[in-house]
Sequence to fold (146 residues):
Amino acid sequence: MNKSFQIDEVEKYIKQKNFGDTITFEELQTLTKYNLKDKFENYKFKANVIRPVKNRLIHSGIVIRSIRNIGYYILKPNQVQSYTYRTYIVKPLKHFEKAATILIKSKTTELNEAELEKHNLTLNLDTELMEVTDKLLKNKKYSNLV
Fold:
């Protein structure tokens, strides 16, 4: 049972389910060579099979969300907006903030002039991205998305 076959099988299985259904690891076990009861094997399954399946499903209008130690939940159409907003719009702001902290706290005394210029430009870009994103999210037009 190769990786590509497993991906295809898991995708087909999920596509036959309904919005709001939960797919357990027990159900998925029959579609994979990985032992989903083993933590490391389960981790490999998620990385090698579920990640590509999730990406394929998105193109079919299906979004699945992980349920720790249980499996996956197929979001209902009315849940997709808030999930997307939180996960792919608001969450990246935290990454910008972390990038700023890393750049501000890093030891720049060891950098040559060109490296320091790149470092400062990166910090500047990150700061501008945070400001623009924050301004957009606070725009009255988008205020009801929270």
Q: What stands out?
A: DSSP finds five helices and three strands in the chain. The radius of gyration is 21 Å. The mean pLDDT is 93. The longest strand covers residues 64-67.
